[in-house]
Design brief:
It is built from three helices and no strands. The chain is an all-alpha fold.
Length: 70
């Protein structure tokens, strides 16, 4: 959700979202910071797919994905 909000705010603000300072009364620096932070949170917590696999296997009791043979 955090990532989606960041992406939406960047799309709505357009080029103004890339400024560190506020532009035309828009808090664009705030949105740029949040959008960049959302990327780091995804990396820090592991990828979304890995998180889904963990929830599926440990919480929902689904079978593990097959491992690649090699």
């Amino acid at each position: 959700l955090y990532k989606r909000v960041g992406e939406l705010s960047m799309r709505l603000l357009g080029r103004a979202a890339l400024c560190r300072e506020d532009v035309a009364e828009l808090p664009s620096g705030h949105f740029l910071h949040r959008a960049m932070q959302s990327l780091s949170l995804t990396i820090a917590a592991g990828t979304s797919q890995i998180q889904r696999n963990i929830i599926g296997e440990r919480v929902l009791g689904l079978p593990k994905e097959p491992r690649p043979q090699g």
